Structure to design on (399 residues):
């Protein structure tokens, strides 16, 4: 992996001002956060900097104000939640540059924390305006990016600042980059990728990138139906993108050339209506799906075989559930395969990295989220990384 500086590379930072990009885009209900895991993720970085005597200025976006000041989208709304997680008082600063910021820094003692307002209130943020970045940078001595989830955006606070100040990866960013490198950058072979979820169309670039990098591509979820249809299987009423069967065949060909084995389910769980435990529920061979049935999960024989594939692998990268896991019993294959991956990880034979909104929810549902090597909550940034794209916020940190 190309190298980036971390907090280990900081010298004496007593009294220095750290501009720290964090993800504070918390899900809110009735004025408080319903999930503070994003704050917990950046807590080690913030406390390490304050313990070393820096003045920490937190910089974040909140919602999509599109370059205008909306009182409903101020970062002041998350101040209380951040204080609770950090167990420290912080000072809200209703600007990101200028005299108000300068005065606030004068009031902050060493080891104190300030929270700047929503950086997306200013159009220069999303435009990545160098003058805007410079305006923020003059207040800081160095810049720390601890928001991997925003790293797929080339914005002033994720990219621009790194060009005006010495730039460092925070601890959460560092952990994420190390995990992703171990999964796809420089993985230990054989590598398996599990790709599931609803549609091929949303994950075309992911599939295309993976076939050149992994030895086993396990396709499940709704997108497996498109691949099955491409192979001439009648998938009945299943979710299927029939217009993408040529694309699916191209991916299968590319995989064959690259020496990547594509695994598709050979038995499936079907039903005539999409509901919890429907009367029409049955398991069958993929060639026996009736015209009025839908494939809603991978079958037990294929799930068992896929678990055996994982047993032969050293590395796993996973995005997308194997079935419509929100509705029972169509969570069965996802839960079983997740448990197998978790057990292999705990045994020390598998490095497992997973990400994606629904994937994280599915692993939590299976009760194994903490038993994977790393679970990324970065959403869009994780997917772009799986697509093999360079993330601007990461590139900016690499000297
Ligand atoms: P992620 O958010 O992890 O990237 P996706 O958004 O691509 O995952 O896919 C998740 C969705 O795919 C879930 O809502 C799940 O119900 C749906 N899904 C999985 N398998 C099927 C299937 N066989 N038929 C219909 N929907 C499915
Ligand atoms: Mg999703």
């Amino acid at each position: 992996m190309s190298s980036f500086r971390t907090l280990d590379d900081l010298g004496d930072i007593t009294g220095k001002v750290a501009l720290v990009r964090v993800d504070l885009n918390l899900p809110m209900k009735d004025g408080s956060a319903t999930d503070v895991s994003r704050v917990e993720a950046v807590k080690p970085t913030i406390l390490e900097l304050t313990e070393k005597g820096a003045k920490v200025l937190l910089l974040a976006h909140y919602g999509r104000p599109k370059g205008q000041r909306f009182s409903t989208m101020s970062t002041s709304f998350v101040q209380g939640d951040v204080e609770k997680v950090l167990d420290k008082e912080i000072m809200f600063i209703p600007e990101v540059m200028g005299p108000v910021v300068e005065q606030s820094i004068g009031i902050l003692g060493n080891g104190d924390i300030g929270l700047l307002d929503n950086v997306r209130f200013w159009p220069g943020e999303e435009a990545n305006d160098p003058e805007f970045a410079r305006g923020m940078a003059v207040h800081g001595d160095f810049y720390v990016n601890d928001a991997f989830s925003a790293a797929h955006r080339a914005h002033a606070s994720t990219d621009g600042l790194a060009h005006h100040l010495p730039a460092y990866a925070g601890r959460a960013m560092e952990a994420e980059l190390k995990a992703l490198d171990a999964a796809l950058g420089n993985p230990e072979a054989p590598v398996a990728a599990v790709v599931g979820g609803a549609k091929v169309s949303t994950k075309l670039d992911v599939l295309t990138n993976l076939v050149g990098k992994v030895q086993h591509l396990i396709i499940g979820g709704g997108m497996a139906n498109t691949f099955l249809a491409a192979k001439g299987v009648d998938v009945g009423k299943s979710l299927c993108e029939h217009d993408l069967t040529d694309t699916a065949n191209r991916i299968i060909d590319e995989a064959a050339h690259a020496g990547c084995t594509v695994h598709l389910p050979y038995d499936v769980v079907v039903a005539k209506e999409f509901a919890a435990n429907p009367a029409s529920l049955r398991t069958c061979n993929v060639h026996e799906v009736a015209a009025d049935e839908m494939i809603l999960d991978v079958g037990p024989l294929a799930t068992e075989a896929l678990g055996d594939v994982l047993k032969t692998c050293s590395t796993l990268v996973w995005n997308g559930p194997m079935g419509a896991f929100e509705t029972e019993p169509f969570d069965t294959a996802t839960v079983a395969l997740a448990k197998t991956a978790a057990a292999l990880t705990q045994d020390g034979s598998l490095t497992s990295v997973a990400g994606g909104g629904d994937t994280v929810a599915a692993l939590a549902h299976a009760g194994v989220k903490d038993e994977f090597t790393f679970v990324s909550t970065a959403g869009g940034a994780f997917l772009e990384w799986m697509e093999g794209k360079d993330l601007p916020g990461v590139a900016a940190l690499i000297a």
In short: The longest strand covers residues 17-21.
